[in-house]
Design goal:
With 415 residues, the protein is of the alpha/beta class. Among the domains are: 25-120, Beta Barrel (OB fold (Dihydrolipoamide Acetyltransferase, E2P)); 127-277, 3-Layer(aba) Sandwich (Rossmann fold), CATH 3.40.50; 368-410, no CATH class. The chain has helices at 3-12, 26-40, 79-82, 122-137, 164-175, 194-208, 233-241, 258-262, 270-277, 279-314, 317-320, 323-365, 367-372, and strands spanning 44-55, 61-66, 71-76, 91-102, 107-120, 154-159, 181-186, 214-219, 246-250, 265-266, 377-379, 397-401, 406-410. The protein has a five-stranded mixed beta barrel with strand order 1-2-3-5-4. A five-stranded parallel sheet has the order 7-6-8-9-10, sandwiched between helices. It has a three-stranded antiparallel sheet with strand order 11-12-13, with no helix packed on it.
């Protein structure tokens, strides 16, 4: 602090306390600090990495500038209109502004007049470098990704036990009435220990709870620094090497981490991960419910049709007066018998006439009819018909058949 400024500051704020102590109100000390900062750093250039950048509808942007050890809040008024590039988390920038404080919150900040890109931020550069390395090794290949089981009954969750992500997952499973077992392995999801705890949890569950159908690994949203544990190589390799299918659910829909690329499936939020995990089960339950409704409807329709048919039968004339059935049949049988008798007689007459006609025709050509006209048949004693007188000799005995009877004769002359 400049010597003259220090003298004015002390002389103007000496307290009249009875015990000689110098006493300030909070507002007074805050305004003095604001004055000192603005007087000491009216214009300063600062290089740092953007974190938690937010552009409001007013056009003002609020963010932090950080390096490996410290960070400072920053505000750029009218940023939307003045900047010729799109600031984003992880981008390294060079800003010029004055250092001040915000007394209501007790924070000090830099009010930025100008800002320009300085180069990629350390986190973003590290992210891209690791992503290219693992991609070249095949950790992101679609062919290596395991499909989720159709029916999930056991789910493992690797996340903070105090975070909103776990509450969201359990709420979705409860709302969907998923009826699944949930095994929670609580871990830190940010900080120096988070990387080791997350990778250890995935390995432990694979070794000791291999019957789990799926693992949900993630956390709620946050800054790039908050999500850094899921951008670590050991976590990505643990996710890739997991025998249990892994759904990565880190941050909000716009957040992407290395573990998202290495996982078998990426869900935009923890809630979406829970819904995706039991989607097959829910869809099957919905289909079974639909089939049950359809089957019940079809059965009810069949029962109603059968009841209607039964009512028609019960109220029918035949059911009420069953003797009508055999009375009608008796009359039918009587008529049928009469028709059979008439048809049989006609058939007999037809066949008789046919037989008489054939007999008449056979009679015309029969040898007997020739004999009736005065002819006879002569044969030797062996029965051979004699057709030529040369075939017999004088004194030979022959048989003679007449129209009525026959006799034996001796040949006297065979001329």
């Amino acid at each position: 602090m400049p010597q003259d400024l220090e003298f004015n500051f002390l002389s103007e704020n000496k307290s009249a306390g009875g015990d000689g102590r110098l006493i300030y109100s909070v507002s007074k000390i805050s305004s003095e600090i604001k004055f000192i900062l603005e007087e000491s750093y009216p214009s300063v250039w600062v290089k740092g990495e953007i974190s938690n950048y937010k552009l409001y509808n007013s056009g003002h942007a609020y963010f932090s500038l950080k390096d490996e050890e410290s960070q400072i809040r920053a505000v750029k008024f009218s940023a939307a209109a003045e900047l010729n590039f799109e600031p984003e988390d992880g981008m390294e920038v060079l800003v010029c502004g004055r250092v001040s404080s915000y007394p209501k919150r007790g924070d000090y900040q830099i009010i930025v007049q100008t800002m320009e890109p300085y180069g990629k931020g350390g986190l973003a550069e590290k992210f891209e470098k690791l992503k290219k390395k693992l991609e070249a090794e095949g950790l992101f290949d679609e062919s290596a990704k395991k499909p989720l089981p159709l029916l999930v009954s056991k789910i493992g969750v690797v996340t903070s036990q105090d975070g909103a992500a776990l509450r969201d997952i359990l709420k979705v499973l409860d709302d969907l009435n998923a009826n699944v077992e949930v095994l929670i392995y609580p871990v830190r999801v940010q900080g120096n220990e988070a990387e080791q705890e997350i990778s250890r949890a995935i390995k432990y569950l694979n070794k000791n709870y291999a019957s789990l159908d799926v693992l949900l690994v993630g956390r709620g949203g946050g800054s790039a620094e908050d999500l850094q544990a899921f951008n670590c190589e050991s976590v990505a390799r643990a996710v890739f090497n997991s025998s249990i299918p892994v759904i990565s659910c880190v941050g909000h829909e716009t957040d992407f981490t290395i573990s998202d690329f290495a996982a078998d499936l990426r869900a935009p939020t923890p809630s979406a991960a829970a819904e995706t995990a039991v989607r097959g089960r829910s869809e099957l339950k919905n289909k079974l419910a639909m089939f049950n409704d359809a089957l019940s409807g079809a059965m009810n329709s069949k029962i109603e049709d059968a009841q209607a048919a039964l009512e028609r039968i019960v109220s029918s004339r035949t059911f009420l007066k069953p003797y009508i059935i055999y009375e009608d049949k008796i009359s039918y049988i009587d008529g049928l018998g009469e028709r059979i008798r008439l048809n049989f007689n006609r058939l007999i007459n037809f066949k008789s006439e046919k037989l008489a006609d054939i007999s008449h025709k056979l009679g015309i050509i029969s040898p007997l009819s020739v004999l009736k006209r005065g002819f006879c048949i002569c044969s030797d004693l062996d029965g051979t018909v004699i057709k030529d007188s040369a075939d017999i000799q004088t004194g030979q005995t022959v048989n003679v058949k007449l129209s009525r009877g026959n006799f034996t004769a001796e040949v006297k002359n065979n001329a």
